[in-house]
Every structure is written in C-alpha cells, then in structure tokens.
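request received
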Amino acid sequence: MRCDVVAVGTELLLGQIVDTNSSWLGEQLAAAGIDSCLQVKVGDNQARIVAALQSVLRDADAVIVCGGLGPTHDDITRESIAEVMGTTLEMDDVIADRIARMFASRNRKMSENNLRQAMVPRGASVIEQKRGTAPGLICPVGDKVIYAVPGVPYELHEMFERAILPDLLARSGEPRKIASRVLRTWGESESGLNERLQPIIDELDRAGNPTLAFLASGWEGIKVRLTARGADDASVRALLDSWAERVRAVVPEVVFGYDTDTMESVVLDMLRAQGLTIGVAESVTGGLVAGRLTATPGSSDVMRGGVVAYASDVKFDVLGVPRGPVISEDTARAMAVGVCKTVGSSVGLALTGVAGPAEQEGAKVGTLCIAVALPAGGESGATSQLVASSTTVMLPGDRKTMRELAVISALNYLRQLLLGS
Amino acid sequence: MRCDVVAVGTELLLGQIVDTNSSWLGEQLAAAGIDSCLQVKVGDNQARIVAALQSVLRDADAVIVCGGLGPTHDDITRESIAEVMGTTLEMDDVIADRIARMFASRNRKMSENNLRQAMVPRGASVIEQKRGTAPGLICPVGDKVIYAVPGVPYELHEMFERAILPDLLARSGEPRKIASRVLRTWGESESGLNERLQPIIDELDRAGNPTLAFLASGWEGIKVRLTARGADDASVRALLDSWAERVRAVVPEVVFGYDTDTMESVVLDMLRAQGLTIGVAESVTGGLVAGRLTATPGSSDVMRGGVVAYASDVKFDVLGVPRGPVISEDTARAMAVGVCKTVGSSVGLALTGVAGPAEQEGAKVGTLCIAVALPAGGESGATSQLVASSTTVMLPGDRKTMRELAVISALNYLRQLLLGS
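response:
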C-alpha cells in the first residue's frame, strides 16, 4: 500500500509556513506500515494541482491532499479533484445547512463564499467536520482514492485518525486497529539507545508489528515510539503492553514516563504523592526551570515559586549563600537550602553554571552544578532539617541548548533522588 | 525565472525530520523575485529521484536538489543527476585531496566511502565546501540547470547565498546584489499591519523592488521583511534605508527593532543606556520573562534576578504585597516595587494574571496585569523613590500561548515606559 501526499498552498512555497502536515502524515503512515514515497508542495493553481494529483496517482494507491478547502477564491482543491475525477461539483445540503447554523449560533453573518465549502465532487463521500467549517472528502478515482483534508493541523489530525487511516487500512486489507505508545527517555543518546535496544529492534524488524522509532526531541528527551496493529483494541493494547515492558526492562533507568507524561509532570506528580512542595533557585537557567514547572496546569499545589539569582549579590543576600565563587556544588547546595526558606517549600532545586559565551571562574562553558535539598528522613514539614545533594555535569551546545539541557538535567536529577527517597 | 526544489531523504518522508530546507529556499527565492512552483520530497531511491528531477525540469528553468550528497551508500544524488545529464561520474582530484587532508588534520582515518563525495558528473562545476565535507554542484542540463547542495541547513544556506543565488540572478539577467532588512514589530495584528501599509505595498507591487513580506513569529512578534536588489551594495542599502524608514513612519509605535534585535535585547540596551538595572517578579509566567532576559549574552550587567511568586504567600512574604486578591494591577504594582527591594534593582517588572485552564478570582483566562516600577525623576540610585505604572491586557490562546504572549507584552510595556522616561 502506498499513499503519497500533496500539500496545497502558495504560502508553503513562499516559506511563510513550513509544511509540517506532510511530515506528520508521513510519520503516521510509516507507523501504520503504509509507504509514502513522494510528498509534493504546490501553489494555489488549478492546473498545477491537477497535474500533481495525476502524476502522484500514476504510482501511488492513494493520495492525501492537504489544504485549499477554505471558503475563499484561492481555495480550489475541490475543483481540482473534480477535474481529476472527470466530474463536477454539487452542493451538499446537509453541509450547507450545518455551516449556516454554525454562523447563526455565533451571531455572525455568513457570506456566500462560505457555501463553497459545501460543494462536493459527484461520487465523493464526506468526512464530517468536527472542529472547523470545511468537511474532508473521500474521492474514488478508479480503484484508487484521493483524500482531501483541511490544512489546519488539528483539523487534519482528527480527520486522518477518525476517517482516513481506517479507510486506508480497510483498503490495504490490514487489521483495522492501530495505536502507539511512547516511552519518554532522558540520559542516553539516540545511538546509545539504538545499540542497547538492537536485539529488540532486530526482532521487531522480522516481526513487522509493532514498529519502533526514535524521535529526538531536544529538551523533551528522546522518545521511543511503538506502534502496533491488530484486529481489535484489546490485542493492540496487549502487544503494546508487552513490548513497552520489554523495551523498558533494557533501559529502565532512562525511562521517565509514557505518552503524555513530561519530565515536569512526572516530577510534580512524585512531589505531590510524597506531600512535598518545591522552590527553585536558578542562576544559569535564569527562570527556565520554574517556567517549565509552571507550564503544567495544576502545578500550583506543589510549586511555591523561586528565586532567579542571576547577580551574585542576589545569591548572597536573598538566598544566604556564603560569599565566594559561585560556580560550585557548594553554592548550588546553599542555594537549594536557601530557596526552601525564602519561598517556604519543603524541597529546593538549584542550578548554577556557565552557559557562555565565555568561561567563568575558570569553569568551562557547559559546566552545570545541580543541587537538591530534601527533608531529612523524608519528613515534609517546613521546619524539618534539610539534606542537600549535588552533582556536576558537562553539557554540550550553544548558550540556548546548554540552558535547555540544564533544565531537563536538573529535573531528572531531582526525579532520581525522589525515587530513592 | 522559475526554480523548483527537490529534497532527497527517506527520513523526510518518514517525518523523522521536517523539511525546512525547501521552505527556507522558497522564502529566499521569493525575496529575490524568482518563482518556485513545485517542491518535492523524495526518498533515497535513484529511479524516483531521477523521475522527480526530470518531471520538475520539464516546467522549471532550474532546480535545487538538497541532500543525498554524503559519503554513505544511501547518498545517491550524484548518480541520479549524472543519469539525468546522460553522463557519468568522475573523480575530482582537488576535492579528493581536500577531503583526505581534512581527515588527516583531525587524526582520523578516512574510509574509502568518503571519496564518493569527490565524484562529480562530467560537465558539472563544483561549489567549494566551506563548512562540511561534501561540495555542491552546478550541473547544466541543456539551457537549464540542477544545483545540488548538502541537506545540512547551515551548509545549504552558505552555498545558496555564495554560489546558487548569484548564478540564478546572472541567468535571469537580474541585478546581482541582494539584501534584506527586517523591521521587528509588536502590538499590531498581521491584518492590521497589512491594512495600514497597503499604500506602500501597492507601490512596491508596482515597482517590484524591494519586495515586502510579513512573517508572523509567535512571541517574537511580526516581522516585516524588505528585500532589495541592485547593481551594487550601496544602491541596495540605499533602497533598504529609504523603504524601511517609509514603513516605520507609518507604524512607528510598533517597530521595536531591526534585523537581529529582539524585544529583550532592545529593553536591555535601553536599561543599560540609562544606567538602570532590572528585577522581575512573575506569577502567571512563572520565570519565563527572566528566562528570556537572561537568554541574551551579556545580560548580567543589567539583569539582577527575580522572584517567581507562584504561590500567593510568596507574593506576600517575599515581595511584601498586601494580603488580598492577587489578580489585580494593585498587586502587580506592589510586586514590581517589592522585587526592586528584594534583588536590589533600580527597575522592577511584574506580571500577574490567569493562564487557565480555569478562571481565577473571577478574572477570565487571558487576563494579564503588568506593572513597572521606575525610579522617580529618572534617578537610578537604589535608594531613590519608585513610581509604579500598570496596565491590564486580555490575551488570546491556550495556556502556553497566553504565557508566551504575556512575556513579550510585558517587555513591550516596559519598553514604552523607558522610551518616555
């Protein structure tokens, strides 16, 4: 089964928008075991859209065309598909009615243009719109098919998963259920993961189901994605459960979560479960750790706040760090203890280091000292004794990369200590 | 003149890498007045690469093919181009020698594979490599041309600007010098900018030089880019100077900088010029404003630090905010004054608001209160009296978007006050 992609929009060719839709579709298709061999961007020009569709359909079994389904004059994907099908467009009254009611419910006047979105090539079936105004289309061309979806990513994603992928799987004779599980990792390079997981990868290559892919995701770590197909949800889930556990068992120390977990959500959940609150003292990251913890909705029951101690005097005067050099684990530990007192938290996390461009106090660019202050004996009262731990790591990259890697490194260090506490 | 793009690499089709190269090239070509009507992604498969090149060359005058020039077996762009040219590859001794010396100078053993990168189709000329090991190629096909460049973005950018664009401009008979200027804006929507600048846009559309484009860039604001062509650097610069000033004069209050300026670099420069230092007190943004100010190298002479006052108690106890509701301009002003005292800065910037998911104290999601404390009479001594100003804005978007827009909104509010001080 081969399904190519045509992305429509002059703004894509002009580089005003990067075409992430075809990348996303390529990823989903590959995970489902469907080949995608050619992906084309073409402008809002009917002759060129028609030529692109005809050319792609010569070799592929199916094509997904993204964009050009809106209400304006530029949106000519419908007309182009009708031309390829050798048919004409007709008004679909159900869609027209839905669009009219949508405008009415928002007290907005509907211009005639909007009814363009209710035009459907004869012989096509409609993918009902759940999120926007333009429906998708399933358009048979002989024994092949053109799927049309809006270019808005969240509308496209929803229609692909709900209607297009099941239709493709049915046409390919593949089992109809498909699902993925992502293992979130930090602390091992992509090549290191690849090497350690090689026996499993070889086994999966032979079996072909589930598939396994690595997705390097910057300061989100490296994602290991398993995608399984099966006859029903239960068998797919069973496959994912068993292979996810096999992968985890090979690299247990680097797997911090699954699917929608993030490093910060995992850390916040662990703190919450242990009845702890947190304060953050940051020098080199200048607020990014606190910014990331507070990105999580509901963090306010655990996250008290923090001190950005960028100038050395702020470390000394606000956090009570003894005067002296500041790129050291001693300083980081004093910051971690200090911030607990300043913001009234039971746990303190502190970072000091050198992001560059120049070295500082003789410490090289990339140096990061992390410290965590935890209640002695695991007590959570604000008045209990604190025990500070610390470590130093060397991080690669430019200023921006070093600071981002510092954030996840520090949160992971805290996670490891919380696991042990 | 029409120049299309073929991006080569199975990893692009699998969505492991998003093809930003063709978007970047499309943007550069459009700015230079060259059309790009079709952009294709194809895998590491010689028959498909050849078919894509032949198909594109039927309509375009030139094609840039990105990627597939590396040393490994998968890298078959050279062979594919030779097939399209109807010729064979031959070893270029100069390139081979350069690659061998590069390995020797790094004390690394060169595998034979690497000499694949010295193979050149007969009749092609070489674009010398300045950054990587693979050279680029200029390959005539009748009166048309295929340019081959590595897929590594910074190698591609350098070769495009140094060799490909000048060659394209020479072929098109256009003047050979080209340069851009970006006006950085905040505070007006893209459609609002478009409307206010319409007379200038119409004039430029008629003249064709310079070109003007809008680039919406999230919490970096909206960029207005002018690109001018001319016979020499001086005439290009004169064109950019005069049109940039015309654009600025229409929307003077929203232009905060040019080219590599950022909102934070502009604010830091203004503070530095006025002999001021800054502290930041953040609730809703949880450290992101401080994180962004400290992203700028050299910020440490102006940026003292900040307090992330996420829990209300931290606002009361650390910043001295009077107890009571916290989503208010009163609280923001007290935070701004408080943080000056806490971190010893002459200026304080504070944010409090509601990022969602739920409303808070009756204030809707998207509410942002910003306050700035400045020394009275513009004095910069830490002991001088502070005067606090504040404003409330409503921001759109989900939690992440609201927080990001809050950061640039707050910095821009500070910028406006510093302009007046």
